[in-house]
Here is the input.
Amino acid sequence: MTARILLLGGTTEALRLARRLGPETVYSLAGLGRVPDDLPCRVRVGGFGGAEGMAAFIAAEGIELLLDLTHPYAAQISRNAARAAEITGVPCWALRRPGWQPGPGDDWREVDGWDELTRALAPFNRPLFTSGREPLAYLQEIPAHQHWTVRCLQAEAAPPRAEVIGARGPFALDEERALFARIRCDVLVSKNSGSASTEPKLQVARELGLPVLLLRRPVLPTVAQEFGEFEALCLALQC
Here is the structure.
């Protein structure tokens, strides 16, 4: 496909797609983490200023197709994309990867928001957070009986009863086993991203019989076309 494309990225699949698309594509990133410098397409970093700002960018750049390949929990960006598509009349396609599903013996518990998560964490001592940067705002409120390990894109200094690890997937199974053992993890906290690159942590929790607290997925807007598989999207794009 030779259309002018605005690709909203930040996921593994978005980067894979950006490597397949040519210079007529604009690959847009929020700015967190490493910005690739070896892509055949143009890379844009930063926000748009809401749906109206994105619509203005689409019009100014002559964008003909908007692709939403953001994280399943980046609900506001997805809402902005759907609204910008409405404003401009440009179709919006989205890759909506399915969530993980529990297997036999899994102890998965869905929670809504930080308050419910805090209550669910109360019986545990050494949680591993793999749910993004949100826990960093609460490092000064760690209960006296707990030690937190937070894994996110960028490491930073932490108080005595916490550790912040900077890492980006994919994560190997043996590496995850070693991490769980080192920190003596007794509960895993995660978003249900559905990503294969971060799934090994769930296998380790399964092997150890640990509970998993999953933040419930947000409801995302309806768009012109939704794809559940990366290759199906690539086939539609003819790339």
Q: What stands out?
A: The two ends are 7 Å apart (CA to CA).
